[in-house]
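Hey, I was hoping to borrow your eyes for a little while. I've been puzzling over a protein and I'd love to understand its fold better. The fold is given in discrete form, as structure tokens running alongside the sequence. I'd be grateful if you could look everything over and explain what you see. No rush at all, and the record is pasted right below.
>
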Amino acid sequence: MKNLVAGLTGGLAALAVFAAPVAALSVNEAGVAVHSEAAMPAEADRQAILAMEGEYEVTFAFSEFLPIASDYELRPSTETPAREVVVVIADEPGYISLQHLLLVGERDDPMVIKHWRQDWHYEPSRLMAYRGFGNWEMDEVSAEDARGAWSQTVYQVDDSPRYAGLARWEHGEGASTWTPAVSWRPLPRRDATTRDDYDTIAAVNRHTVTEWGWTHEQDNSKLVLRDGSPRELVREHGINTYRRAELTGAENAHRYWAATADYWADVRAAWDEIMLASEFSVEDDAEGTLLYGPVLSEGQAVFMGGRETEEAFENAAAIIEAQVTADGQPAEILP
């Protein structure tokens, strides 16, 4: 079986695969294969993940700090404020799913935009891996590597895949931290819509939960793949800070989710079906006009009362099928 191991070699992110023993598998509450000999996860792990639920004042801060290419000029640092509500949409012993909802516009009566989602699985047997240029593979995880570990899989606003990692939680005085190995991911939208000089990010994606909230750190290497072999362009540090707060207008997020939860459950199920393949590809443009925009718009139509859930999902399924291939064939989403 393959086991995904990531590391930086000569300043570049590289993935190594080596043999590992086969373990018996079972299926957890979310329909994800896990190692059947899995023990119950530590409650401290579960509580650290669940502590990310709530209302937050957020800052997204990114700073390039080390040019690797001799002719590269560092881009200006950015810091963007936001307000987010994070809701638990699944809570099982070995599976937790957290949905992020953005509040934008007027503070008293904000518009709600579905943001990213994070799924946590205890001792998984498979892990999603990005290979560049819109291509993903599902790598198998050995029982040894999975033991005591949680995978985090991150999805974009339309519930399409983004990246995943595997690590064990570490609990200390006042903080719990989860730090996986380096993994690849597509360009963030902040870069995809403004530049075209690199192809993927190799990142260490660290979560730290504290008494006042939590942080999401990213040690990023921006890689050029188009020349045939990875070449590091620049290194960047990112930190997304979530400070717990009582947000005016947060009830709008819960109202949006109550109205659209069934639609998004169907969309998640469609992507889960696609990810049963050993490899899949997703095509979208930088602005998201081919995939994420239309899928998000169908959800908004449900929220506004202009579309029934079933009709909206049929439209979304057709959009996804047009942009996705699985195991080399056009995706086919079962009704």
